[in-house]
Write a structure and sequence with these properties.
The protein is α+β, with helices and mostly antiparallel strands. It has four domains: about 1-85, Uridine Diphospho-n-acetylenolpyruvylglucosamine Reductase, domain 2 (2-Layer Sandwich), CATH 3.30.43.10; about 95-220, Uridine Diphospho-n-acetylenolpyruvylglucosamine Reductase, domain 3 (2-Layer Sandwich), CATH 3.30.465; about 225-340, FAD-linked oxidases, C-terminal domain (Vanillyl-alcohol Oxidase, Chain A, domain 3), CATH 3.40.462; about 360-440, 2-Layer Sandwich (GMP Synthetase, Chain A, domain 3). The chain has 15 helices and 17 strands. It has helices at about 1-10, 20-25, 45-60, 110-120, 140-145, 200-205, 235-245, 260-270, 275-280, 300-315, 335-340, 370-380, 420-440, 450-455, 460-470, and strands at about 15, 40, 65, 85, 95-100, 105, 125, 160-165, 170-175, 210-220, 220, 225-235, 255-260, 285-295, 360-365, 395-400, 405-415. Strand 8 and strand 9 (about 170-175) form a beta hairpin. Helix 1 (about 1-10) packs antiparallel against helix 3 and helix 12 (about 370-380) runs antiparallel to helix 13. The longest helix has 20 residues, at about 420-440. The protein is globular. The two termini are about 30 Å apart.
Length: about 475
């Protein structure tokens, strides 16, 4: 095969495969997106090789789909038009950890399990989204704009300078990394924007359609010296959101999350299925989790201040909300929750969303916090029309930037081996998304069937995206078939 021989010259014989068993591994993921078979898989080990592969793909008009994780959940890495899978998982070096400026530089294939372990050994940690899979690429999740559980504004954009290979094969560096001689130049700091334009926005949320990011500088932080976990059973979601409006702008709390009983039961259950069913039946409708932390300097004083302010607000303004260090009926939950929030989901345990029935489909969007009760109401009205029990819906609300906004996520669990169940969830997913859009939900990360629904409602935005795509990817070789391309 001519194509295989040409790619072998770029990456070496051991880094190219056309074996059917390997191609099948890349043809599907944990989503409802239909399978797609690639023609070849190639594993580059350097930015130079990534560049040469993309130059080859342009010359031969062959689609390239970049991936860097072992686990995928949204269908963005499934080839829609065949072509070559470019798997960056062998580019997995942690290149540098700078404790002075709290920054780590690492390649695209570095996983959550790998990075969190290395940082913990140095007394550091990274702000992470809720329970990322240990085999997920850290860089990929931040490019996908996964929302972190920490609501503090300072950590809303943790990616600093990085290197991207544009679809034409041109290698480009952003921010301080663009300085001549980097990293030997010791240029540090700064956000990823270079002079004049914020190029990093082109690749964030682009699902591999706008370029290949090979390494990044990521903001990290010192590990906490002391933590306290507070719980509040929630029956009135609107009341809880009013409470968050009061405490989060005051920078109370490190991690803050709201989980309904189905999601929380799926996360904390140990013995399946007995524990899960018991927890789902006994947990409150929603549970608000607030982690108060003390860092390097005067940790006891910081925690004392936040705890005092938290209790004063509850006592003076929100007496119907019982905020305590224990969730009634669930002793010892605080330590377990803290560990879960600070670590990725173990690679050797079925992912928490798939433990119950084997499959799940999540619908997530950005919203104004005060509108979350309405969105819950909408989904709970749509689900029964498709024969899906309301009690089986997982719900998760993540405040963003001191509750300026939030991400709302609904998860529909199903038997992945049941074709009828898959069809049911696919129809429910689309109808729920349409109803939510009509009510103002903002879908900033549209995958699969959701993409055309989003882009057909934003004609001017879609036209602008296509113009930008034409400039950076004139031959449309980068992951064609995704987003609006």
């Amino acid at each position: 095969m001519k194509s295989k021989d040409e790619l072998t010259k770029i990456v070496g014989k051991e880094n190219v495969s056309v074996a059917e068993a390997i191609l099948l591994k890349y043809s599907s993921d944990h989503s409802l997106v239909p399978p797609g078979i690639p023609e070849m898989v190639v594993w580059p080990t350097s930015s130079e090789q990534v560049s040469e592969i993309l130059k080859w793909s342009n010359k031969n008009n062959v689609p390239v789909v970049p991936v860097s994780s072992k686990e995928h959940f949204n269908g963005g890495a499934i080839p829609k038009q065949g072509g070559v899978i470019m798997d960056l998982s062998r580019m997995n070096k942690i290149l540098e950890i700078d404790l002075d400026i709290k920054q780590a530089r690492f390649e695209a294939g570095v996983t959550w399990g790998q990075l969190t372990t290395e940082l913990k050994n140095k007394g550091m940690r990274v702000i992470m989204p809720l329970l990322p899979h240990a085999d997920r690429s850290v860089l990929s999740d931040f490019l996908d704009r996964e929302v972190p559980t920490n609501t503090v504004y300072d950590y809303g954009e943790p990616m600093q300078a990085f290197e991207v290979v544009w679809p034409t094969g041109d290698v480009f560096r952003l921010g301080s990394a663009s300085v001549n001689g980097y990293p030997e130049s010791q240029s540090r700091g700064g956000n990823p924007s270079g002079p004049g334009m914020d190029f990093y926005r082109f690749v964030q949320g682009a699902q591999g359609t706008m370029g290949v990011v090979t390494w990044t500088n990521l903001k990290i932080m010192y590990g906490t010296k002391k933590d306290k976990v507070f719980f509040a059973p929630v029956n009135d979601l609107a009341y809880a959101q009013e409470f968050l409006y009061r405490i989060l702008p005051r920078r109370i709390g490190q991690e803050v999350v709201l989980l309904n009983q189905t999601d929380l039961a799926a996360i904390i259950a140990e013995n399946w299925p007995a524990d899960f069913e018991k927890l789902r039946a006994t947990l409150p409708p929603w549970t608000l989790i607030i982690v108060v932390s003390g860092l390097e300097r005067r940790p006891d004083e910081k925690i004392a201040y936040e705890e005092k302010t938290l209790k004063e607000i509850v006592r003076n303004e929100f007496r119907r909300l019982a905020v305590d260090e224990a969730l009634p009926g669930f002793p010892g939950l605080g330590n377990r929750i803290l560990s879960l929030l600070r670590n990725p989901w173990p690679a050797d345990v079925p992912y928490w969303k798939n433990r119950w029935q084997g499959g799940s489909q999540s619908l997530f969007f950005i919203a104004r916090p005060e509108k979350t009760p309405k969105y819950v109401e909408i989904v709970e009205a749509v689900a029964p029309k498709h024969g899906y029990p309301v009690a089986d819906i997982g719900s998760y609300i993540q405040p963003i930037e001191h509750n300026r906004a939030c991400q709302v996520e609904f998860t529909f669990f199903y038997d992945e081996k049941n074709a009828a169940a898959k069809a049911q969830i696919a129809a429910l997913y689309k109808d729920a998304a349409k109803a939510l859009m009509n009510e103002g939900a903002l879908f900033t990360r549209p995958y699969g069937d959701l993409a055309p629904m989003v882009y057909e409602r934003a004609a001017n935005y879609t036209m602008a995206l296509r113009r930008v795509k034409k400039i950076f990817d004139p031959n449309n070789v980068m992951n064609p078939g995704n987003l609006c391309f």
